[in-house]
Amino acid sequence: MSALAAIPDSVTLAEDARALAELQPWLASRDAETRIAWALSTLSGPHVLSSSFGAQSAVLLHMATRIRPDIPVLLVDTGYLFDETYRFVDELQNRLDLNLQIIRPELSPQWLEIRHGQLWEQGREGIERYNRLMKVQPMNAALARLGARTWIAGLRRSQSESRRHINPLMLQDGRWKLHPLFDWSNRDLHQYLLRHQLPYHPLWNDGYVSIGDRHSTRPIHEVAREEDTRFAGLIRECGLHESVTSGG
User: Fold this and answer.
1) Which domains does the chain have, with CATH numbers?
2) What was the pLDDT predicted at 242?
3) Phi–psi pair at 171, nearest 5 degrees
4) Cβ of 196: how many Cβ atoms within 10 Å?
5) Residue (of 189, 188, 178) closest to 148 by Cα position
6) Model pLDDT for residues 11-32, shown as the tens digit of each residue
7) Which position among 61, 96, 238, 240 bears the catalytic label?
8) Is 132 part of the annotated catalytic residue set?
9) Full DSSP string of 18-54
10) Alpha helices (H) in the chain, listed in sequence order
């Protein structure tokens, strides 16, 4: 396959896994900026970028918007983010002039708890239901509304066991999923942040290495493993980056 050849649409490629597999080595041999530029010029649009505005999120936000300044940046706001996260969002939006799209669930935090209680305290099943209602369903609705065909996200193999085998390009629910930083280490991210004088999330220096909702995020010094910093280690993935069917 020619590196810059136009590739089939997602339906055709989904039926030909070999074609996607053949593309992976070429993408893996390129740098992250080239992966993004190639995807924006080659893969079907509209293109979107998601961000949790977590610990090192400034890297991908800066990198992608240098290539396409107006790319929509999707943030799911559950209403339970840390105060520091909201301030970090404002800081990066102002600094990078982001085309920020705030995605909110149908239920407010108060209404969620009145109907269902504190789902994150109800074991694995409750956590999964919380994530489905407050994150997955709102994101799926936003992607459909925007007609997104290519989704860029900051997943990395080094983040967790559940992400150990992600590829630079995948298919999820009928759209392209690009992971330009899939092979980056924390050191790579740190060097990029230093080089471009970009900030870590404000809670990074307090030991928060993975930052989500305030009710289910713990600093690294309070847990036994990094995997346990989110949802007490009961689950690692919230469902946003898995092929899922939205339920009630």
Assistant:
1) 10-233 (3.40.50.620)
2) 65
3) -115, 135
4) 12
5) 178
6) 344 445 666 777 888 899 999 9
7) 238
8) no
9) HHHHHHHHHHHTS-HHHHHHHHHHHS-S-EEEE----
10) 10-15, 17-28, 32-42, 58-67, 83-96, 109-116, 123-131, 137-146, 186-195
